[in-house]
Design brief:
This protein has three helices and six strands. The termini are close together. By secondary structure, the chain is of the alpha+beta class. Helix 1 runs antiparallel to helix 2 (46-73). It has a six-stranded mixed beta sheet. The longest helix is centred in the N-terminal third of the chain and has 31 residues, at 3-33. It folds into two domains: 3-73; 90-158, Transcription elongation factor, GreA/GreB, C-terminal domain (Chitinase A, domain 3, Roll), CATH 3.10.50.30.
Protein backbone atom coordinates (compact mmCIF):
# COMPACT_ATOMS: atom_id res chain seq x y z
CA UNK A 1 0.00 0.00 0.00
CA UNK A 2 1.15 3.50 -0.84
CA UNK A 3 1.45 5.47 2.43
CA UNK A 4 1.33 8.80 0.60
CA UNK A 5 -2.07 7.88 -0.84
CA UNK A 6 -3.23 6.64 2.57
CA UNK A 7 -2.22 9.91 4.24
CA UNK A 8 -3.85 11.90 1.42
CA UNK A 9 -7.08 9.93 1.96
CA UNK A 10 -6.83 10.54 5.73
CA UNK A 11 -6.40 14.27 5.10
CA UNK A 12 -9.52 14.29 2.91
CA UNK A 13 -11.51 12.41 5.55
CA UNK A 14 -10.32 14.72 8.33
CA UNK A 15 -11.11 17.81 6.24
CA UNK A 16 -14.67 16.51 5.73
CA UNK A 17 -14.96 15.72 9.45
CA UNK A 18 -13.70 19.20 10.30
CA UNK A 19 -16.18 20.88 7.97
CA UNK A 20 -19.07 18.92 9.50
CA UNK A 21 -17.85 19.64 13.02
CA UNK A 22 -17.53 23.37 12.34
CA UNK A 23 -21.06 23.46 10.93
CA UNK A 24 -22.36 21.61 14.00
CA UNK A 25 -20.44 23.94 16.33
CA UNK A 26 -21.86 26.98 14.56
CA UNK A 27 -25.41 25.61 14.88
CA UNK A 28 -24.84 24.74 18.54
CA UNK A 29 -23.45 28.22 19.24
CA UNK A 30 -26.47 29.78 17.56
CA UNK A 31 -28.75 27.58 19.68
CA UNK A 32 -26.88 28.57 22.83
CA UNK A 33 -27.21 32.28 22.10
CA UNK A 34 -30.73 32.21 20.65
CA UNK A 35 -33.45 34.00 22.59
CA UNK A 36 -35.31 30.71 23.12
CA UNK A 37 -32.31 29.39 25.05
CA UNK A 38 -32.76 31.93 27.82
CA UNK A 39 -33.58 30.03 30.98
CA UNK A 40 -37.22 29.98 31.93
CA UNK A 41 -36.34 29.30 35.56
CA UNK A 42 -33.33 28.54 37.73
CA UNK A 43 -33.39 24.83 36.72
CA UNK A 44 -33.45 25.41 32.97
CA UNK A 45 -29.91 24.74 31.73
CA UNK A 46 -30.52 24.34 27.96
CA UNK A 47 -28.50 27.42 27.06
CA UNK A 48 -25.64 26.49 29.38
CA UNK A 49 -25.55 22.93 28.04
CA UNK A 50 -25.50 24.18 24.45
CA UNK A 51 -22.64 26.55 25.32
CA UNK A 52 -20.62 23.68 26.83
CA UNK A 53 -21.29 21.56 23.76
CA UNK A 54 -20.21 24.37 21.43
CA UNK A 55 -16.98 24.76 23.44
CA UNK A 56 -16.25 21.03 23.25
CA UNK A 57 -16.90 21.05 19.50
CA UNK A 58 -14.52 23.98 19.06
CA UNK A 59 -11.80 22.12 20.99
CA UNK A 60 -12.32 19.01 18.84
CA UNK A 61 -12.08 21.16 15.69
CA UNK A 62 -8.79 22.65 16.93
CA UNK A 63 -7.43 19.12 17.55
CA UNK A 64 -8.40 18.04 14.03
CA UNK A 65 -6.68 21.18 12.66
CA UNK A 66 -3.52 20.17 14.53
CA UNK A 67 -3.66 16.61 13.15
CA UNK A 68 -4.26 17.94 9.63
CA UNK A 69 -1.25 20.22 9.88
CA UNK A 70 0.94 17.30 10.92
CA UNK A 71 -0.38 15.02 8.16
CA UNK A 72 0.18 17.73 5.53
CA UNK A 73 3.79 18.31 6.53
CA UNK A 74 5.03 14.96 7.85
CA UNK A 75 8.08 13.41 6.24
CA UNK A 76 7.06 9.89 5.27
CA UNK A 77 9.83 7.35 5.76
CA UNK A 78 10.22 4.32 3.54
CA UNK A 79 10.95 1.23 5.64
CA UNK A 80 12.79 -1.87 4.51
CA UNK A 81 12.83 -5.33 6.09
CA UNK A 82 15.66 -4.45 8.51
CA UNK A 83 14.32 -1.11 9.74
CA UNK A 84 12.91 -0.78 13.22
CA UNK A 85 9.36 0.52 13.59
CA UNK A 86 9.17 4.27 14.12
CA UNK A 87 6.93 7.17 13.14
CA UNK A 88 5.14 6.84 9.75
CA UNK A 89 5.56 3.03 9.69
CA UNK A 90 2.62 1.12 8.26
CA UNK A 91 2.56 -2.07 10.28
CA UNK A 92 0.55 -5.18 9.53
CA UNK A 93 -0.20 -7.07 12.72
CA UNK A 94 -1.86 -10.33 13.56
CA UNK A 95 -3.83 -10.71 16.78
CA UNK A 96 -5.12 -14.26 17.08
CA UNK A 97 -6.76 -14.80 13.67
CA UNK A 98 -7.34 -11.12 12.87
CA UNK A 99 -5.02 -9.01 10.72
CA UNK A 100 -4.74 -5.32 11.61
CA UNK A 101 -3.15 -2.42 9.74
CA UNK A 102 -1.72 0.31 11.96
CA UNK A 103 -0.07 3.54 10.85
CA UNK A 104 2.22 4.91 13.55
CA UNK A 105 1.94 8.71 13.71
CA UNK A 106 2.81 11.34 16.36
CA UNK A 107 -0.84 12.55 16.48
CA UNK A 108 -4.22 11.26 15.42
CA UNK A 109 -4.60 8.18 17.59
CA UNK A 110 -7.99 6.60 17.15
CA UNK A 111 -8.55 7.93 13.64
CA UNK A 112 -9.31 5.13 11.23
CA UNK A 113 -9.77 4.95 7.48
CA UNK A 114 -11.31 2.39 5.19
CA UNK A 115 -8.85 2.09 2.32
CA UNK A 116 -8.82 -0.48 -0.47
CA UNK A 117 -11.21 -2.66 1.51
CA UNK A 118 -9.10 -2.59 4.67
CA UNK A 119 -9.31 -0.54 7.84
CA UNK A 120 -6.18 1.39 8.74
CA UNK A 121 -5.96 2.58 12.35
CA UNK A 122 -3.72 5.45 13.44
CA UNK A 123 -1.76 4.60 16.58
CA UNK A 124 0.55 6.95 18.42
CA UNK A 125 3.61 6.26 20.59
CA UNK A 126 1.51 7.49 23.53
CA UNK A 127 -0.81 4.48 23.14
CA UNK A 128 0.00 1.14 24.71
CA UNK A 129 0.13 -0.56 21.30
CA UNK A 130 2.16 2.22 19.68
CA UNK A 131 4.67 2.23 22.53
CA UNK A 132 5.07 -1.56 22.34
CA UNK A 133 5.71 -1.42 18.58
CA UNK A 134 8.51 1.16 18.68
CA UNK A 135 11.88 -0.36 17.84
CA UNK A 136 10.53 -3.77 16.83
CA UNK A 137 10.89 -5.40 13.41
CA UNK A 138 8.84 -7.62 11.09
CA UNK A 139 8.68 -11.07 12.66
CA UNK A 140 8.81 -9.77 16.25
CA UNK A 141 6.01 -10.07 18.77
CA UNK A 142 4.60 -6.95 20.46
CA UNK A 143 3.18 -7.67 23.90
CA UNK A 144 0.40 -5.39 25.12
CA UNK A 145 -1.07 -5.56 28.61
CA UNK A 146 -4.84 -5.19 28.63
CA UNK A 147 -6.09 -5.34 32.19
CA UNK A 148 -4.64 -8.48 33.69
CA UNK A 149 -4.07 -10.15 30.31
CA UNK A 150 -1.25 -9.87 27.78
CA UNK A 151 -2.14 -9.74 24.10
CA UNK A 152 0.50 -10.76 21.59
CA UNK A 153 0.58 -8.99 18.26
CA UNK A 154 2.71 -10.71 15.63
CA UNK A 155 4.35 -8.14 13.36
CA UNK A 156 3.81 -9.44 9.82
CA UNK A 157 5.27 -6.53 7.85
CA UNK A 158 6.59 -2.99 8.17
CA UNK A 159 6.52 -0.53 5.29
Amino acid sequence: MDKRKIIKAMIEQLENDLMSLKEAARATYEAATHEESKPENEYDTRGLEAAYLAGAQAKRAAKIDEILSLFRHVEIKTFNAKDAISSTALVELKLKSKNILALLMPLGGGVSLSYEGRTIQIVTPASVLGESLLGLHAGDIAEVEVGDKVQEYQILSVS
